[in-house]
């Protein structure tokens, strides 16, 4: 690892592991995986900007903040409850929520959660025994660790080693879950490393909507301080339809490193929406594997940054089989000194004929200092495919601005309207009025601060 | 209503308009005709305040006020309306929301109450009938995917809703088939009134069969080289633009 002198952050975390492992209340299978993962992390160390995938992500901020590793002790349930309740009371939530799962600093809070479904058609099973022993999983659930390997990625290793519980969300075959399942991951702002872990299995022929909502505790003063390193593995079985919405709205001092990996079977449909609205540094790693014919993935993302926010999206779509479809639309609005990265790779394997793929990344820069690095990439090893990709970076259209002003709209109103128009298609794509208006309200809020803070920017 | 005095203007750095004098009184309809590159569109752009155009000499008074000093949106709120030659497509911004925002911006400026959604809708429906505009165009994004005729109808609809005092139509007839032209002209004719002035800019005489002007001016090389009654349009149609002397 690093040379002499100050102990590096990675070393601090590695040293903290034995005490963590001592106190955490694990099933034996998870304990073994943790130890393996820690060995991988020791090997890999923290990523740095010399690595291609991390070239543009300013991880130096981590070394400055030095978030301590989790202690492993489950906090007093009363204090978890209080943090959870306060956060729920402060943050707006959609009107129509079906089942709800609440996690505080990664720990599952059964008292604030409810998964309602007749005959266990929908279940949440915590990995850790401490959460609720009668429902905890005693053997390694199929799929766990299959889509993200600790050997290849330091943050996967870190999450696997330090995950606070986590759990499996299981949607039974042919079950149609009408209302969105809302999972809230609340970071108390303690400054610690928090590692939420999730496994989702959408059974054959099922249909459901899962919202993963990342927010900070209600304390105004700490601005969500800390590092959230989340990892989700999602399996969509044959002919299932899953809509998955990730909302990142942590406080401005929150760092969010998210990794979401999906695996789709034959004729399944997955809609994946990512809204990056808060946090000081947000990085989304999104991997979609189209593992059988007829599978279709629609990925949409919106990132809104102002101040010194940094937002990354790294997507990888793997067309492993013929007749698979992928659609990607990622849009960003960046003001002030905000910075964004979009790196998207569509990989078409040799036998994956007749696939259909499109990828687009569009960016609106509201200030001269805002910056975006965009790199859409295609890697095609089949010869009968339909692939398109492209990216744009621009300012507001002067023609459109003049058109609106010539109809009496003030310049600030015209700018706001055009910016809202730019992001509209991402929110509009959400199914369900309640969820759509919830997302729209959050987006409008974040957009208002983007536009407001950049209002004085030179044209 | 509109007094243009010795107007000189550039598009970018290129001098285009080289001394125009024109008075349009309330209730009058004036047509400006001319070949491509004569300065027709520059004139309309200067009057509406489009960025990229600069006035180098002369002045323009609108209802006695210095029009050129007003920002674009103030001109609009004061009652100047430009129907665009190429209406802009704006994805993501709903047409109906835009129209309501626009109408209310103008109403507020005039000291009138804002229209609520219901009132706006009923007024809008009535005006839409006039321009034979299908109702689904209201729920779509501004001009996005509209046909040429639909875009121009949308322009006229905006004009009907905003009730301007000075209407400038910049080649509104270009690219329209005869049917769409008739509808657009009917919309314009419905706006003719003793307290409203109109400036109709066109390349083709055909439009003036439907919107009959009080005066016709021929623009060439950035100057008005001829003015006359509506019969001048017929003369141009018969002889083409070739017979007009170039002022330079």
Task: Name a few traits of the molecule.
heterodimer; A: 459 residues; alpha/beta; ten-stranded mixed β-sheet; 8 helices; B: 248 residues; Rossmann fold; six-stranded mixed β-sheet; four-stranded antiparallel β-sheet; 12 strands; 37% helix; globular
Give structural notes:
The complex is a heterodimer of chains A (459) and B (248). Chain A is α/β, with parallel strands linked by helices. Chain A contains eight helices and 20 strands. A ten-stranded mixed β-sheet of chain A has the order 2-1-5-8-10-12-14-16-18-20, covered by helices on one side. In chain A, strands 3, 4, 6, 7, 9, 11, 13, 15, 17 and 19 form a ten-stranded mixed β-sheet that branches. In chain A, helix 1 packs antiparallel against helix 2 (28-44). The longest helix of chain A is centred in the C-terminal third of the chain and has 21 residues, at 433-453. The mean pLDDT of chain A is 90. Chain B has 248 residues and is an alpha/beta fold. In chain B, the strands form three sheets. A six-stranded mixed β-sheet of chain B has the order 6-9-10-3-11-12, sandwiched between helices. In chain B, strands 2-1-4-5 form a four-stranded antiparallel β-sheet. In chain B, a hairpin with a 2-residue loop joins strand 11 and strand 12 (223-228). Chain B is globular and about 55 Å long. The A-B interface holds A 397-400, 402-411, 413-414, 417-418, 420-425 and B 48-51, 71-73, 75-77, 81-82, 84, 87-88, 90-93, 98, 101-102, 105-106, 109, 141, 158, 162.
